[in-house]
Amino acid sequence: SLPKQVKIVEVGPRDGLQNEKESVPVEVKIELVNRLTSAGFQNVEAASFVSPKWVPQMATSKEVMAAIQRKPGVIYSALTPNMQGFEAALAAQADEVVIFGSASEAFSQKNINCSIAESIARFEGVAKAAKDNGLRLRGSISCSFGCPYQGEVPLDAVADVVGRMRDLGCDEIDIADTIGVATPRKTQAVMETAIRAFRLDGLSGHFHDTYGQALANIYASLELGIAIYHSSVSGLGGCPYAKGATGNVATEDVLYMMQGLGIDTGIDLDIVVDAGQFISQFLGRKGASRAGNAIAAK
Ligand code: HMG
Ligand code: MG
Question: Ligand 1 atom closest to Cα of 112?
Fold first, then answer.
């Protein structure tokens, strides 16, 4: 049977916006985060403390974190590739820091400019500092289902990085389909591998929807008991280091499916739809959520 309850981590303000070419004003980012927390998300990825030369759009993360309305109980997460990022996240009062690695050697080099082994060594300091400061620690594993540079990614490579993230003390580990290539049976094979290496209730599915498979892959993961999913309002996003990758699965679509399945998320879909319309209007394009557009048109 499927989980009765799932946690949806809204990653639109980070994964969604990081790929936007035009700079999105701080006030718009703040309003987006506030609208999302008012919808009931318990976890929002709001910031990324990476090199502004690599990802210019995230350069205002400090200002965003300083001005959002903090809702009690909500976990505001920030990406932290190294100690410099960690110090910035700590100063910005992030509740959770995210170390992000890859199951693909080639992608690791392109995305964070080091090998998988070097990244794990770098993350050790971040992980220890997170624990010392009482912050939650999450590990994200890109290209768990395929890589834009090397193609196939062996299950063993995923198992290995999950084990390393576990040993670093991660509270949660994201199995990410950076380029949206997975299909349901493949998803289950990778997730079963991850489940053998980490607690089921700490694993999350982070699916991009490039090939239109994300909802099917989420359903396949639900069948295995995975109960944490990442999504972006209005399907925003992509990854600057994965050419052609589209956004994360749209939050509205995920919520609509969960409602239909009778799975509790604690989130008000109508408020998310409004938030999706808000950001889409700002960006000057139609939102990428099918459910969101259908509900908004009513
Ligand atoms: P590097 O060039 O190897 O690092 O980059 P470095 O330590 O040699 O530093 C070089 C310069 O960057 C220095 O500045 C540092 O101060 C600065 P300079 O002296 O040249 O003026 N720097 C920083 N500035 C701000 N914050 C920092 C920071 N660190 C160094 N934290 C680094 C290595 C990791 C920093 C770089 O490669 C980088 O920033 N990469 C970011 C990649 C990224 O953000 N990708 C998108 C997010 S991951 C993603 O989207 C995937 C995910 O969604 C899951 C999925 O879908 O797969 C999570
Ligand atoms: Mg992503």
Answer: 37
Collapse the DSSP code of 160 into the 3-class scheme (helix H, G, I; strand E, B; otherwise coil) and give the result.
helix
What is the per-residue DSSP string for 123-145? HHHHHHHHHHTT-EEEEEEETSS
Torsion, Cα 286 143 54 56, to 10 degrees, reads 20
**Beta carbon of 112 within 6 Å of any ligand 1 atom:** yes
Strand positions, DSSP E, 11-61: 43-48
Q: How far does the centroid of ligand 1 lie from the alpha carbon of residue 155, in Å? A: 27
Atom 24 of ligand 1: nearest residue by CA position: 51
Instruction: Write down the ipTM of this complex.
Output: 0.99
Nearest to 226 by CA among 251, 256, 190: 190
Q: Is residue 143 flagged as an active site residue?
A: no
What is the β-pairing status of strands 7-10 and 228-231? parallel
Mean pLDDT, rounded, for 253-258: 98
Average pLDDT across the chain, whole number: 97
**127-151 residue pLDDT tens:** 999 999 999 999 999 999 999 999 9
Following DSSP, what letter does each residue of 64-77 receive, concatenated?
Answer: HHHHS-PPTTPEEE
Q: What is the DSSP letter of 53?
A: T
Tracing tokens 């309002």 back to the chain, one arrives at 233
Tokens for 156? 């063993």
Residue of minimum CA distance from atom 10 in ligand 1: 51
Is the pLDDT confidence value at 291 over 70?
Answer: yes
Tens digits of residue pLDDT in 34-50? 999 999 999 999 999 99
